[in-house]
Amino acid sequence: MRMDRYLPPDHPLSRFYRVAAAIFGAFLLVFGAFGLANQVPLFTTSGIDIVGLSSNGLLALVSVVVGVLLISAAAWGGPVASTTTAAIGVLFFLSGLINLGLLNTPWNVFAFKLPNVVFSLIAGMLLMFFGFYGRLSGGLPQDNPYVRYRHHEPPAQDFPEQRLADERRIAELEQICRAEVAVAEGHPTPEQHRLVQSEAYRHMQEERRRAYQHYQDAGRTPEQQISAQNLWADFEVPERRPSQRPTAERQEGPES
User: What confidence tens digit (pLDDT) does each residue in 178-190 have?
Assistant: First the structure.
């Protein structure tokens, strides 16, 4: 299954990869174009300075090719831009290390100077960061597209009902937060006051359920506790509004 299904074009990670690849590709393209425009010899070891970096004809040509490659990857899509950016970042970093040892030697085919080495190392680390961000970081969330892809789980967009449920729950939480702020500030509407009371009652019911479960688990073996937890997972404490009196209390009135 292609990674494109897991990382659609409108995903934030996809936009991040594509923007990073396009910006760096454009810089390399301009740098290489200036080098070619000055008609520097192809294999000279003493290049000319362009925006503070030394360049010869070969380095200018390679810069143009890599810039076009990055821009094309950005236009292709997020997964391709991520992989291409990371791979070029590794090459940049290795180039900086190798050319550091070739300075002032006949093998310095790219006419590198110390600023070129520093730029190559920093650019390599930045490109690797941009390319690997969100796919090799520690503690990735379970809904991360690369985590789902590695575990062969279906893409998140294959469950539209789950996404709609999550969006509804987020909207409800935002409404509850606004209502709680209004109550705290002393100017809630009747609907906001009712909503805060209902939410407090729901939390109270959840606490009662956990308390009942803890009481029932006392003295049980671990196997029995696991079985009881499975039963309690679907248990709901019978709803009783704060304004309602218990049945036993209602029955005591006539008898007394």
Answer: 888 888 888 888 8
